[in-house]
Specification:
The complex is a heterodimer of chains A (97) and B (84). Chain A has one domain. Chain A contains 3 helices and no strands. Chain B has one domain. The chains are: A mainly alpha (97), B mainly alpha (84). Chains A and B meet through helix 1, helix 2 and helix 3 of A and helix 1, helix 3 and helix 4 of B.
Chain lengths: 97, 84
């Protein structure tokens, strides 16, 4: 059974790492600011979420697992709000979409 | 298993460092800010992985602090962003 949990961790953490790769590629290659923001928020939410999901079986106690999830929720909340605010600034300083 | 986790953390760190090129090139101020946001989230992911893999709970707390600081940086940016 521990073996199955290890496989689960490897798969989810690898998926999270691939999403960070996708976020970086999108940030560097997409043509304008708003599409780059789109790539960034995907990496933020889903990438960190998958990494946290993969780390949950390795947490020492139930409290540590809850702490990991709440860190993810904090990043999720602040990332969503920051994306809206940054998009507003990008619209004001750049050409209209 | 532990080695795999360290390798994944190193990979994420390398990706985030590569994304910082956008701070250098980015035409708009918002582009530079987005690369820093990616650094914040990627840094949190790396710190959580290292904290769990090395079984040092304090590192997870450092990740929590980095998440808080990334949120504050975004708010400071939109408050003081140069308006053209």
């Amino acid at each position: 059974m521990p073996h199955a949990l290890d496989v689960f961790t490897v798969i989810t953490v690898s998926s999270g790492a691939v999403l960070f790769l996708a976020g970086t590629v999108g940030l560097l290659r997409f043509p304008d600011t708003l599409t780059r923001l789109h790539a960034l928020t995907k990496a933020d939410n889903l990438g960190l979420g998958l990494v946290v999901l993969g780390l949950l079986p390795l947490a020492q106690s139930r409290l540590d697992g809850l702490k990991l999830i709440s860190i993810w929720l904090l990043v999720q909340l602040s990332g969503a709000i920051a994306a809206q605010l940054i998009a507003n600034v990008a619209r004001q300083e750049g050409p209209p979409p | 298993m532990i080695n795999y986790l360290y390798a994944a953390a190193a990979f994420i760190l390398a990706m985030v460092a590569l994304g910082l090129l956008r701070v250098f090139y980015g035409p708009a101020e918002a582009d530079r800010m987005m690369a820093v946001q990616l650094l914040g989230t990627g840094g949190v992911a790396v710190l959580l992985i290292v904290g769990v893999a090395a079984a040092v709970p304090a590192v997870v707390d450092v990740g929590l602090m980095l998440a808080l600081l990334a949120a504050f940086v975004a708010v400071a940016f939109v408050t003081y962003a140069p308006r053209t």
